[in-house]
Structures are given as structure tokens and as C-alpha cells.
Write a structure and sequence with these properties.
This protein has 583 residues and is of the alpha/beta class. It folds into 3 domains: 2-127, ATPase, nucleotide binding domain (Nucleotidyltransferase, domain 5, 2-Layer Sandwich); 133-341, Nucleotidyltransferase, domain 5 (2-Layer Sandwich); 381-582, DHBP synthase. 36% of the residues lie in helices and 19% in strands. It is built from 20 helices and 24 strands. An 8-stranded mixed beta sheet has the order 15-24-23-16-17-22-18-21, sandwiched between helices. Helix 6 (127-136) crosses helix 14 (349-361), helix 7 runs antiparallel to helix 11 and helix 16 (408-420) packs across helix 19 (527-540). The longest helix has 29 residues, at 280-308.
């Protein structure tokens, strides 16, 4: 049985496919469209996932989409009557809902099917149920508290309950227009970071100052002692009046300004333009926002734990990508174990929708938990060789050479030696990662011991804001020697404090607050990447390399061609494409 999961007509459009309940493939459309956070229908993702299943498209039994226009219908009606939002926005929402109600044409176009007999059963899964399913059913837990928090979807911004076996039990939700995701995006825009998905930059900024404006943010968002949830002071925001402020139908997501003049007046400074310098004021705003987010989420989780009595927590939603917050959950709440899958953002709802159908609707038992993030396209030796042939003249003209090293140990030794000598390496291996992080298959890697490496990477390749840190990949066997944690963190979803005696050893990957967003690498989940880091350890004594995404102000590269193009237009030293070395 094949179940295709979709995130469509939403940011980070994606597809995932289950074969007899087992995840076979998953990928975001941005990897193919080359548009960051690509919205619309994930045509190429659908095609890839079905081909990767080794079945025919006509074998699709079920299609699940993470959107249910009928969910909370009367709440939507009442909101519209009471608030009279922008009519253009309402019409835009109705158009998107109409597309969700009938996906037959899009599916047939994706899969090039003309047969009238192609009619898989369509399931419309509520947005946050899909988020929660993506976390709980991908986890190794038989039972856990479940929690989802993001901007909003299907008129909900947060949802919670329990997962037991193959069933979810939803206990409560926060309804639109109150949203921690909207709060974080609005303040991110105020700070001059206006591109969709820039919230992680605000998280990085928060480390540069104390939360001196926390009193104001506590007025912006309040909690109730007697229930799980929160409320925003809507005078400072516009999203509830301008429903057209977010558009997801095609291409790059569009988000209008979400804060009102009242916010500007209250903070006493005009909004920052991107070209303006950051000041202590901006750092304090970011720090105060981050602290208030943490306070509200921890309040909700403490109440959820009291209600459920469970020791384990699974979490999803865009806010679940906040590494700083995640790293404190086990300290600030009674939960003892936490699981977040690598595509916790909306891209992961394609997986969640499919898992929800497999378990909650079809009543099938649990299957293998997700143990890695490598579910996208891969390219074999012949495919890479063919691409190199088409580029041979351009490569030769640029003064670069191509060699092939088929022995893995020799390849890793050579690459590790290059890194230890200061080279910047493009590392392209195996299947593309699912989710926003490069985790050792589509990565740019370098020496974390060099104090100037952050500046070198930004000047030569990444061209990004200097306040943003780079991340370390560490052999999981050594994590407690360098950081204040001993647990696995395979998806770069937590920050860890670098042990004081190790900070001078790793200047390129230590943030200003002494933390790093770590990726622990296991030999079982990624043996090639593990071998590379192990060879670097053999040379330097340090079991860590700097890892950043293989891109230059674009989505992470997916194909050998994209990797080559990025390599040739930037100032990388070496590109490793499978077993091929270009330098």
C-alpha cells in the first residue's frame, strides 16, 4: 500500500511517501524549484517520491494533504463576521481551499497519468494534527505528550495532547489570531529581517544582549494560570485585520507587515531597514522576544506535563526549530526525554499527514521510527560522471582538476587533510536531507579551530550576516567531552554549551553566548560523514568539523549540477561529488 503525503498551497511545499507504512522518500519542493520556501503544489516532489517507492503511480491507494478547510469552520465564520477582514484576503483563502478540495488534476499532471481509473482516496488532515503525527509517529516512543506550535494552520496556532500506540488524543488548541509564530515573525520584520523564514536570524541576535525589554513583551503575550495557552495584545499586530497578509498559492511565500503603528510607538524606535546597522536596542528587542517565547512555551509544557503525567515529549511546528528554546526544555520542565524530527517546519506535515492516515485512520500498528534525515534524491557514479563530462571544458578553463578516489578511507583521509590545512570543502554525498538543515550530505565543511574561518566563509561563499554562527558536526562518542550534554542531537535542533576549556579550540563554531547548535554524527546513520570526521580527529585530535549548508543565498543544492555551479561561482577550494574530487 502506498500513501502519499502532501504539504501544498502552503510555505515549504513538500511530499512524502509511505510504502506499507514505512517512510520511503520525502523532500521539499524548494530543492527542485530553487525558490526558498517554495509554496504552491509540489509537482516535482510528488514525482520523485512515487518514483523512489519503486511502485507505479496507479498503485497509490491514499493521498493525504495537511489541510482541512472544514476544520473549525464555525470559528472561522464568527471571526469573519466580528472582525470584517480584508475581502481580498478572504477570497485568496477561499481559492486555496478550493484547490485543496480537489487535487486530482495536480496529481495527474505531476505523475503524467491520463487514466480515468486513477482515483486514490483523498484525506484532508488538519494542519496541527499533521505536525503532531510527524513527531510522535516518527519517534521511538510508544507513549508521549504531544505538542505543536507555529504561525497558524487551519485556524490554529498551537495544539497539544497525548500519543499512545497508533492513536493521537488531542486535548486542546490555541485558535487564530493568537500565535507565537506570528509574534516572532512580526518582531523579526520590525528588526529589518523581512524575508520569509528569517526568524532563525532573530534567534541568533538574541544572544548579543540581555532581555531588558521583557516587561513590554510580557504585556504583548500573556498566559492564564488556570489553562494551557496564551493571548496576544492584538493592538500591536495587523494579521487579524489583513488576512491577505500571507499568500501561499505559488512560488515564494509573501508575508506583509504583521505589526502595527502601536508597536513602533511603544518601542520608541522606527523599524530597522535591512541596510541599517544593528544597535544595542535591536539586540535587546531580540533577546526579550526570545525570552518571552521561552517563558510562554515552558508555561504551556509544564501544564501539559501536569495534565498528562508523561515523561516523554514529542514536538513539531515551525517554532520547534528554535534551537535555543529546545535546549532548555528538559531543564525548565519536568519532561525527561524530547524528540523533534528534522523537518519540524511545515515541510514535515507531508510526512505527518501520511502517518496520520496510516495510523489514526487506517488503524495500522507502529512501524520503524525515523533514524536519519536522508530521504531526498541521490545520484550514482554514472550520473555524476555524466554531469562532469558536460562541465569538463569549463572545469579545465578554470584551472581545476578532476580525480576519482573509490577507496572510502583514502577519500576521507585526503579530505580531512585538506580541511586541517584550511581548505573549504563542498561535500556532496548520498541522499538529500529532509528539512532545513544540511546534515553532512549537502554540506560545506571547514576547520572549526581557525578563529578566522567564520569571516573567510562569509567573505568567500556564504555572503551572510556576520552575527550568525556556524555549526559543528561532532562524532557522537565525544559529545560530552566538548559540550554540556551527552545525548544524541542528530538534526541540529538544540544548542549546547561549549565546555569552557574547549572554547578556544573551536572558535569558528562557538556563538557569542558560548553555545553551539550541534549535530551529533553516528556511524550507523551516516558512515561516510562519520569516517570523514574521524579522519579529521586522527589528524588534529579534534572530533569536530564546521558544517554549513551547501548553498549561496539559495536553497540547499540538490543535484550534482547545482553543486558544481555553486562551486564554480564561489571561492571553495575543493568539491567532493561522491568519489570525484574537483580542486
Amino acid at each position: 500500500m502506498l500513501i502519499l503525503g502532501l504539504n501544498a498551497y502552503n510555505a515549504d511545499a513538500s511530499a512524502a511517501i509511505l510504502t506499507k507504512g514505512e517512510l520511503t522518500a520525502a523532500v521539499e519542493e524548494e530543492r527542485f524549484s530553487r525558490i526558498k520556501h517554495s509554496a504552491g503544489f509540489p509537482y516535482e516532489s510528488v514525482k520523485f517520491c512515487v518514483e523512489a517507492s519503486n511502485y507505479q503511480a496507479v498503485d497509490l491507494s491514499h493521498v493525504a494533504i495537511c489541510r482541512n478547510p472544514k476544520a473549525h469552520f464555525w470559528k472561522k465564520v464568527m471571526f469573519t463576521l466580528l472582525n470584517r477582514p480584508n475581502p481580498a484576503g478572504v477570497i485568496d483563502r477561499l481559492k486555496a481551499n478550493a484547490k485543496v478540495l480537489s487535487l486530482q488534476d495536480e496529481l495527474q499532471q505531476s505523475l503524467n497519468i491520463l487514466s480515468p481509473d486513477f482515483n486514490p482516496k483523498l484525506h484532508k488532515v488538519e494542519h496541527h494534527k499533521a505536525h503532531i503525527a510527524s513527531a510522535f509517529y516518527a519517534s521511538p516512543y510508544e507513549e508521549s505528550a504531544v505538542f505543536s506550535v507555529d504561525g497558524f494552520g487551519d485556524f490554529v496556532s498551537a495544539m497539544w495532547g497525548t500519543g499512545v500506540g497508533n492513536k493521537l488524543h488531542i486535548d486542546g488548541a490555541v485558535k487564530f489570531p493568537h500565535s507565537l509564530g506570528i509574534l516572532y515573525t512580526a518582531i523579526t520584520q520590525y528588526l529589518g529581517l523581512t524575508k520569509f523564514g528569517d526568524e532563525y536570524k532573530t534567534m541568533a541576535l538574541a544572544a548579543y544582549a540581555d532581555a531588558n525589554k521583557l516587561d513590554f513583551f510580557r504585556k504583548l503575550v500573556t498566559t492564564d494560570d488556570n489553562r494551557i495557552g496564551f493571548q496576544m495584545d492584538l493592538r500591536y499586530f495587523t494579521h487579524h485585520k489583513n488576512v491577505n497578509s500571507m499568500q501561499w498559492l505559488e512560488g515564494e511565500p509573501i508575508v506583509d507587515t504583521l505589526y502595527s503603528q502601536n508597536l513602533i510607538t511603544a518601542l520608541g524606535h522606527p523599524p530597522r531597514h535591512y541596510e541599517d546597522n544593528m544597535s544595542e536596542f535591536h539586540y535587546e528587542v531580540a533577546a526579550s522576544l526570545q525570552r518571552r517565547l521561552e517563558e510562554v512555551v515552558f508555561d504551556m509544557l509544564n501544564k501539559l506535563h501536569k495534565r498528562t503525567g508523561l515523561k516523554k515529549l514529542t514536538m513539531a511546528g515551525g517554532v520547534a526549530l528554535n534551537c535555543t528554546m529546545n535546549s532548555k526544555i528538559l531543564e525548565q520542565t519536568p519532561f525527561e526525554e524530547l524528540y523533534i524530527q528534522p523537518a519540524a517546519w511545515d515541510g514535515g506535515t507531508s510526512l505527518g499527514s501520511a502517518l496520520y492516515v496510516w495510523h489514526d485512520i487506517l488503524d495500522n500498528p507502529r512501524v520503524q521510527p525515523m533514524e536519519h534525515a536522508y530521504w531526498g534524491p541521490s545520484y550514482d557514479r554514472n550520473q555524476i560522471s555524466e554531469v562532469l563530462e558536460t562541465y569538463i571544458e569549463k572545469i579545465n578553463k578554470s584551472g581545476k582538476s578532476i580525480t576519482e578516489i573509490s577507496d572510502l578511507n583514502e577519500l576521507c583521509k585526503m579530505t580531512a587533510k585538506q580541511i586541517s590545512e584550511g581548505a573549504i570543502i563542498g561535500w556532496f554525498q548520498g541522499r538529500t536531507e529532509f528539512g532545513p538543515r544540511a546534515l553532512g550530505n549537502r554540506s560545506i565543511i571547514a576547520d572549526p579551530r581557525r578563529s578566522d574561518m567564520r569571516e573567510i566563509l562569509n567573505e568567500r561563499i556564504k555572503l551572510r550576516e556576520t552575527f550568525r554562527p556556524f555549526a559543528p558536526s561532532i562524532l557522537e562518542e565525544y559529545v560530552s567531552e566538548y559540550f554540556d550534554t551527552d545525548g544524541p542531537a542528530p538534526y541540529m535542533l538544540i544548542n549546547a554549551n561549549v565546555r569552557p576549556e574547549k572554547r578556544d579550540i573551536l572558535p569558528a563554531v562557538v556563538h557569542i553566548d558560548g553555545t553551539s547548535r550541534i549535530q551529533t554524527v553516528s556511524q550507523a546513520s551516516n558512515p561516510r560523514y562519520w569516517n570523514l570526521i574521524n579522519e579529521f580527529k586522527n589528524i588534529t585530535g579534534v572530533p569536530i568539523i564546521l558544517n554549513t549548508s551547501f548553498n549561496e543565498n539559495e536553497p540547499i543544492v540538490c543535484t550534482p549540477t547545482e553543486a558544481l555551479e555553486c562551486f564554480l561561482r564561489t571561492d571553495m577550494d575543493v568539491l567532493i561529488l561522491g568519489d570525484f574530487v574537483i580542486k
